[in-house]
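Protein of interest.
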Amino acid sequence: MTERMPLGESQPMVIREAQVRATLTMPYAIEALEAAFRDWAHGRATNQPRQRVHTPQGTLHLMGAAWHSKGYIGYKAYFSFPTGTRFHVALASAQTGELLALIEADWLGRIRTGAASGVATKYLAREDAQTVAILGAGEQAATQLQAVCAVRSIQRAFVYSRTAERRTAFAQQMGAQLGIPVQAAESVEEAVAEADVICTITTARDPILTGALLKPGMHINAAGANSLARRELDTFAVGRCDRIAVDDPQQARIEAAELVVPIELRKLSWERVQPLSHIVGGIAACTPVA
């Protein structure tokens, strides 16, 4: 039975975490996000970069968007405090403003982050990519591997985390879930040595993936750093990339330290940074690495 909450003249649906997990599969999330990127490229959707409100104890993070062609407008908000992080999405009609749904959004955020890496991998990684390296084994890591496996015929994966117990548990869990060998690596170097696709999904403040570790043909999904205080790739690694695509260049200018630092050092320019939506929407050429 659908749960509803009387709220003024509206009775929005209330969608709980368990319902999101049971309903939203990775293939569907990738399909929906790909469609949203395509519409965004052609003016049929808009996105508001993340904004933050700080207190001495914690932070409110707020992101808004509208999908005009689908008739939806809404926002995602989350509160990060020492006691934990809490996520929700409010979805409304783009025609009337009527509140349609309130959604618990922890899993929704994880699967959306993974799906973005899936879309990027689909359009930019080699068609014959078979090996994935996951750097990080936290709450966001599983959906990164799920997404890459949804768009490429992955045969094996490696995972590295600073915590041995965590990387071992991740390898066992994801190997059983995906039906491929997943090996816990002892170092970043071991994890990426044979990788075709690398996903970084950590909270590292200093780069963990250096340009010296990269080989021609690798594809990187740098998904963990979301503030100027964090970097997962060093300047040499960014400089070695033939193509650089981001969800939103406007947001990247605010919080993508991996790009801001080399641009400040005049090792990169914003003209080289493409919106992923333009690649999906056919505005920018799609040329996967050879």
